[in-house]
Amino acid sequence: ITIFTECFYYKEEKWYYAGTYRAFRMDGLTTQEWELLSIKTTQALIKEPLAGGKSVSPQNTYETGQLHAVGAL
Length: 73
Hints:
Strand 1 and strand 2 form a beta hairpin. The protein has helices at residues 31-36, 39-47, 58-69; strands at residues 3-11, 14-23. The chain has a two-stranded antiparallel ribbon with strand order 1-2. It contains three helices and two strands. Helix 2 packs across helix 3 (58-69).
């Protein structure tokens, strides 16, 4: 089932439209599906949970990506 959702973000006391995105559950993402995601998508999925995406070393980002790719996370 493909679910699309409208996304917005709040910045400086204003709401902005971010677009329509396909929603999915990370729990249900297989390693094969992970490999099909774009680099931009996988980097966002890895960096955001790691310290809110702030002050994350490239090594930590790389290692987390590798763990996701093999299904360890």
